[in-house]
Amino acid sequence: MTSIAHVAVIGLGYIGLPTAAILAEHGLQVTGVDVNAQTVAAVRAGTVPFVEPELGEYVSRTVARGTLTASTQTPSAEAYIVAVPTPFREDLSPDLSFIESAGRALAPTLSGGELVILESTSPPGATERLAQVIQQERPDLATSGDLKFAHCPERVLPGSVMRELVENDRIVGGVTTEAAEAAAELYRTFCRGEILLTDARTAEMTKLVENSFRDVNIAFANELSVICAELGINVWELIELANHHPRVNILQPGPGVGGHCIAVDPWFIVDAAPESARLIRSARQVNDAKPGWVVDQVKARAYDVLQSTGRPPVVAALGLAFKKNIDDLRESPAVAIVDALARQLSDSQILAVEPHVDRLPPALTGHPGVTLADGRDAIERADIVVMLVDHDDFAALQEVAASKPVVDTRGLWAKRQSSPRS
Ligand code: SAJ
After folding, report:
1. Is 261 a catalytic residue?
2. Among residues 152, 149, 147, which one has the least CA distance to residue 187?
3. pLDDT tens profile 245-273
4. Which of 40, 354, 376, 419 is positioned for an S-S bond with 70, CB 3.0–4.6 A?
């Protein structure tokens, strides 16, 4: 059992808020801290400022019970969990400024003996850097050496966060063994998975490696999709067949890799070891090049339509989210592709279909040729169909597109088998 009764969770985003709510659900007194006053007001009112299944119930219940509160100011607490963003800069190096300012904001509230956990995905050495920032602010506590620092990366999948927080195994890396053990006890209050202890740098690297593994595997699939297009082979069937081998598990090609993690975290490894991280860098480049390849595929078909009809084609773009069955359009390759098509086929009309949103994202509102449309209607009006997200809703629309040129980047419709030659 943890002896910690009051936790401050700094950063009420996709990870911080669920973590705050689940700790509060298990009886700890939790203060969620965020620089955004609107986020704080939403949580105080028992509501959630973004979509995540089940999170709303946890927040409203714990706020009503009084175990979860929110503030723009960091309070004194026995443990602090820092879950702020770690974006990368233009030169692809990690930006630790949010972590450092969280450290500076919490330093004055310390009195000695507290546990400070970094949850933000971070390059190796970031937890030690956070410790350094805090110790510089509080030289009085630095010498006594009894502040405890640990890194506990999250690995929950957006859309299943509340379940995965409880069920997933958890890596806990301490700057000292004592810190790792204290952090492990805190996570045991709600985590039913195995809790594995290590040092802070290994924990930081573990998280980066997990996402890089997936990125490299997806890059392999994306490279295969380009090769197969050249060779006239159905890549979906190819991967399905190869995956019947007991030791082969190739992921799926797509229009590129989106989201806030897999397309970002590998760069932290590249930045930390630029000479040696050759495969990891190359995978990022392959995945980042895929949207441009998709645009070229659509443009080739647009040229054919223009040649045969004498008018610019209407394009139906199916899906804008960064992956299937979610409403999150941020860092989405589908949005980047529609944006590029709108620029490069400026006389064409582009009918963007995204059943999970009711308005276009800001990146697309500036293009007069792009409008949000219903799936069936868009396909019926289109000369070319480009499938960008494999939302379940789109599976049934294959027939409507039967007679049209289709660029299926996800294989939702193209997963048919080739027939053997007789
Ligand atoms: N994608 C493909 N082909 C695939 C699988 C995914 O093109 O076979 C694309 C998706 O369409 C999407 C992108 O990759 O654009 C990322 O989607 P994802 O489902 O692979 O991952 P995220 O970003 O939603 O969540 C990942 C997860 N990491 C791993 O599975 C190793 C999650 O467990 C992490 O907690 C999360 O990153 C994070 O926060 O780091």
Report:
1. yes
2. 152
3. 999 999 999 999 999 899 999 999 999 99
4. 40
